[in-house]
Amino acid sequence: MTAPKTAMVLAAGLGTRMRPLTDDRPKALVEVGGRALIDHVLDRLVEAGVERAVVNVHWFADRLEAHLAARGRGPEIAISDERETLLETGGGLKKARPLLGDGAVFVANIDSVWTDGAAGATWADELVRLWDPATMDACLLLARREGSIGFEGDGDFFLGSDGRLAFRGEAASAPFAYMGVHITRSDYADGGPDGAFSLSPLWRASAAAGRLYGCVLDGDWMHVGDPQARDEAEVRLGSA
Residue 181's closest CA among 148, 142, 129, 228? Predict the structure, then answer.
């Protein structure tokens, strides 16, 4: 498969856990390693071939829009305005649907920073190679829990030999966590309810139908969800 040329960047969150760094800015504009989180993500998407990104905005929306307008480099940016109502991941994707066009899209959170491994392949190579809209609804990029920065949970998924994902369910732990980037169809959330809703129930339905797939990042994942994780990511990037 060829890499999607369009991406949805989920940047509308309140960044509550990132306070006080988000008292005067959206989480997307918190800096790590001298760059705003959203610039880390947009630059990685460009590396993967993305030419157009739809960014949703809510908290300090004017400031984020101004930053994006002044970036001075790709990708082309379109704004999905959620100033009035915050719609969560599923609702945000559904609202942005007219801006995304048809076909496959990357969907990316803005609280992940990552590095590629030493094997030479980029983060997107295996994700794009695996993606097949005929057999799957979404293809998630995963990270191993061990060695990840800023992730303290018990893991999200088990990964089958064929790439199919199963949720942790009642198990005490699972080896892999969703690291914040996936490929899906631009219309994946169209059947969701009106208003705010999460992508998680859609993923669970897809997993039950055998249509949720994933692959593992070859590299280091930093989940920058709070100030301590931001500081740890700064150290990791400085030593990379």
Answer: 142
